[in-house]
Amino acid sequence: MTVEALTEKAKVVCNDKGVRFTTIREKVFRLLAETQAGVGAYDLLEQLKQTEPNAKPATIYRALDFLAEMGFIHKIESTNAFMLCHHFDHTHPVQLLVCEKCGHVEELHSHAIAHELNNQATELGFKVESQTIEARGICTKCQ
Fold first, then answer.
1. Which amino acids does the record list as binding Zn(2+) (predicted)?
2. What residues in the chain have per-residue pLDDT under 70?
3. Which pLDDT score is estimated for 93?
């Protein structure tokens, strides 16, 4: 899906939920939509400053918080980076394959993995609220 199509889809979701997809939020969304790798907050800030010279760290973190709350992005915990979710129109389990050489991130949606995790958690009396599983390795291009 193109950046334009993803952006339009995000605008529809925001409109349906009665929230504002501000210019800054849209710009950060577009920056994330243009890459297949995880991007750190400060790297995003530097990119955003090209069009918003007065942007501060709080600017980017507020935008990222909003995008995460809307389900538009995933946080890659192991690298403290963010990536766009192309499937934000529905809730889904998330497994991320992170390339340690180029940083490319592939998003999987295995219901079997999520089901097994939930089953084992339930056996231990634990209620899973959300899950993102990360696997680190080397992608096809870098092998």
1. 99, 102, 139, 142
2. none
3. 79
